[in-house]
Write a structure and sequence with these properties.
Layout (H helix, E strand, L loop, with lengths): L6 H38 L7 H38 L4 E7 L10 E7 L5 E8 L4 E9 L2 E2 L5 H12 L4 H5 L1
Antiparallel strand pairs: 1-2, 2-3, 3-4, 4-5
């Protein structure tokens, strides 16, 4: 016990104390590293051979590739949508039918004028004039709500009614 009070003994005690502190610190660091590896393993999906920085770089690259793919798909969808909208503009969006008695002979309003117009108010008016002995059919083109040829009052009424009606669902969607 006398040897511990000498200089060599005090140095030995200090070294032993320092070694004990270093051992406790090493155990604590080992526990922390194990916890960190367990957390890293949860993030990496059990692939302990990879490190977190490599995994983050791979995720970044995957997100960049996904972003590029989404941009390509978005562009394709925009092109197709523009094509569909252009085609819908030429489809029948407004229509109306007006019945009338062409010869005022009380025949039950068998004559008709039908307007079939696109989103721009252009299309055709078809009129069918019925008489007891005969029926005649006329067709006239309409551009932006006005007839190329002079429209009969019933044909003008069909165009007016068609353009004042709500658009069909296909037109309302665009």
């Amino acid at each position: 016990m006398d040897e511990l009070s000498t200089t060599v003994g005090i140095v030995a005690l200090a070294a032993a104390g320092l070694a004990l502190v270093a051992l406790i610190w090493a155990i604590a660091a080992t526990v922390q590293v194990r916890r960190l590896r367990a957390a890293q393993s949860a993030v990496l999906g059990g692939q302990a051979a990879r490190d977190l920085v490599t995994h983050a770089a791979e995720l970044d690259e995957a997100f960049r590739n996904l972003h590029e793919h989404v941009d390509v798909v978005h562009g394709t969808i925009d092109e197709r949508l523009a094509e569909v909208e252009a085609r819908l503009d030429g489809a029948i969006a407004y229509r109306a039918m007006v019945r009338f008695d062409a010869y005022n002979e009380l025949s039950g309003r068998q004559s008709t004028s039908i307007a079939l117009l696109d989103a721009h108010g252009s299309g055709i008016v078809i009129s069918s004039i019925h008489h007891r002995d005969a029926a005649r059919v006329y067709a006239k083109q309409v551009h932006e709500g006005r007839g190329e040829l002079e429209l009969a009052p019933e044909e003008e009424e069909a165009v007016r009614v068609a353009l004042s009606a709500p658009a069909t669902p296909a037109e309302a969607a665009s």
